[in-house]
């Protein structure tokens, strides 16, 4: 493996959709226009490549001074359990700084992962879910 991490480097909707599919994260992978809009609206995207292949991504919405919502954390299946997710989180934390809270909504299957990488469970969150 020749992994390189990048901050706000170009990522295509097709590449991101492929990582989402492989990782098992549920996203609108067949709606590339929506994936592209997700990328375009994100002020912070940390990507990791093995040579030229995108293998992981952390996509965040943030003001860089108070809060950061980590919307997507995905690593291709064959690269999981190699520390890439933790490295993406570390890179995200470095970019937002210590004064910024890092917030996420976990997929049910990842609930055990986040406490292991430093997240605290929050019982004071609310959501109005999307319709599609």
TrEMBL record:
InterPro entries: Acetyltransferase_Butenolide, Acyl_CoA_acyltransferase, GNAT_dom. Residues 3-132 form the N-acetyltransferase domain. PANTHER family: FAMILY N-ACETYLTRANSFERASE, PUTATIVE (AFU_ORTHOLOGUE AFUA_6G03350)-RELATED. This is N-acetyltransferase YhbS.
